[in-house]
Amino acid sequence: METVQQIQMRPLGKTDIFVSPIGLGVMEFAGAPGIFGRVFPIISQEEKNAILKAALDGGINWFDTAEAYGFGISERSLVAALKANGKSDQDVFIETKWMPMMRTARSITHSVEDRLRNLDGYSIGNFMVHQPYGFSTPESEMNAMADLVKAGKIRSVGVSNFSADRMRKAHATLAKRGLPLAVNQMRYSLLSREIESNGVLETARELGVTIVAYTPLGRGILSGKYNKNPELLSRMPRWRKASMRRDLERSRKLISVMEEIATASGVTIAQVALNWVINSQGDIVVAIPAATKVQQAADNAGAMKFRLSADEMSHLDEASRRL
After folding, report:
1. What DSSP state is assigned to residue 90?
2. Per-residue confidence at 68, pLDDT binned at 50, 70, 90?
3. Which tens digits make up the pLDDT trace of 222-237?
4. DSSP states along 91-151
5. For helices 294-302 and 45-57, what crossing angle results, to 10°?
6. What percent of the chain has pLDDT over 90?
């Protein structure tokens, strides 16, 4: 393991935007009494403020939210936390997303106005199409997004969960408008490496698109906490338990390797997992782990303060491929 003296910011695609290798996903900030309390954890605003402070203190400069995360609750909670920590729009970078399900590209214009109202003076650094499932073509969606850039409503354009082919279409459409496709947000971790074999990673590298890795801790499994306390699964909804148990069982040997590396290096298992994600593919991948506790946010940021050795990366790669 090598200690990193200074965090090196990374460009988002071919834009002039630079972010820390790790950001903070604030989907969990969407919890509220009622239906959203069943989907997302309910965290007090004071705790959200403290979580954000830990992230900022650790060198994180960007935050990921979305329209679908409580239909504005996550966005407003993020802004409240930024203001509580004395951060201005110039201090941070925010990305949010338009949900296309059951909608056409024409709704993007209305959605961005809602996003800007929720962000209350903070700008949209990157606006993404959240899913590839809508009633419009990627070309129509990208042209609508390009119009927003030209109008000064957003700074850059991204997509999420786009296949290699759909990413190419989005990239080509934006290129005709003189704009780059900044990011494709995809599931990526030591447990989920599909983008390495389905063409997404290769295409992103070819086009100069940054991969924003979501669930980089494999829904918490790669933190090692479920291996140590399997009873935590009993608190989960029934629909989630089965898949979590499968992932937990198949990851036992991988977690063992991660634990050995973490112990030898004096870091946490979660930090090992995050360090692999942001460094295994060069600088093309950045990650947005979530945090529901202050210590989690601090640990996430701490994963940027060191770099695993080539041998450690190789051992993790081998153990992950055996899953």
Report:
1. G
2. very high
3. 998 887 777 777 776 6
4. G-EEEEEE--TT--TTHHHHHHHHHHHHHTT--BSEEEE--S-SSS-HHHHHHHHHHHHHT
5. 20
6. 87
